[in-house]
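Marked as duplicate of an earlier ticket. Keeping the data here for the record.
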Amino acid sequence: MNAMMEKTSAAYLALARFLDRLSPLFDLAIRLYVASVFLRSGLGKLHNWDSTLMLFRYEYDVPLLPPDVAAWTGTATELSLPLLVALGVAGRASALALFLFNGMAVYSYQSVLLSPAGAAGLQQHILWGSLLLVTLFHGPGKLSVDHLLCRWLGKKGS
């Protein structure tokens, strides 16, 4: 019985070490996926600017900002924050900012996303928000600018 427990424990530890080695790639994949979603959305807004302005004027309900300002601000956010998230620059802060932006998008388009017809869209926003929370709570990982800077600064201080 003891030999079987040792084998099981050794196999579990080997699997854990293997997964630990893969975790930086997983962190990077999460960041790249979420960044690509928002970046493509921002590029789409630029490509169809007249449609973007119409959506912000008549469809989206962004609080506090005039529709044209909201359109410019939203597009700029979708073009800048995903780059920071993808590269892992100020990883936790940029993930938090994009998470809040995602929440504002749901709030602003709740007339559709919270209706039965918008259920699939709402699920996508929940997925993106959840993945951003992984980066927020665990950091951007070893394959990030943040990690490289911390290593460089740590060695400089020695």
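See parent ticket for discussion. The two ends are 50 Å apart (CA to CA).
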